[in-house]
Amino acid sequence: MAAPEYESAFKGFHVRTEQHSPTDAKRVEIAQELRAAIDELLATSAPLEELEETRKMINQAVLRLQSRAHSHEYTGPAEGSLAPMNSFLDRSPIIGSINPLSVPMKMGIEGDGGRDSVVIGHATFEAAYEGPPGCVHGGFIAAYFDEVLGMAQSLSGNPGMTVNLTVDYRSPTPLNKPVVFRGWVVSVEGRKISVAGSLHYGETLCAEAKGLFVSMRPEVFQRLLEIRQAQRG
Description:
Layout: H1 4-11, H2 22-43, H3 48-66, H4 85-91, E1 106-110, E2 118-124, H5 138-154, E3 160-169, E4 178-189, E5 192-201, E6 204-215, H6 218-232
Antiparallel strand pairs: 1-2, 2-4, 3-6, 4-5, 5-6
């Protein structure tokens, strides 16, 4: 059985404990602008000259952020603590508000936060996530299921990491429409945590998922941090 502080850290991994600093609040705004830029880039019919001017402007912004006065080494969301909730929430490629790769998905819990609760994820996928015409790419759906089921398994009291994730696609998931993910614990057998989930657009079932997670001991988490540090040199 994992130590209580370790269990608490992972159970609260998707829960914000502090407000954004002014710096991170500004990063959130920049990330929103970048998402809008990506969406416009995919749809624009601007002439070559305007595209070149846009490229130069973006390049200037990149150079500004890369300047020696502003640059520092990124330490990642797991550095130095078993409970990096806010850092993960902000930088996650799935739910991170300062990560322009994310939608980001808004997550919550139906229930008392215990094993029988249901995790809810609300998202609206825009053009950057398109697979079939007008529909969300199945790979993104799988990634977002992994996040929802990951939060669900953390409610088991013995949380761990993904071992297997299976997605059955039932109906196309539309772009630019609000969709709802759900995830819940099915069973816990020793270190094995079985979870399941669904994805709906309105009343339409778009996909279902099953996942298997295996609880991770604190020393394994620490070893991952050490390996990461060694890779960075």
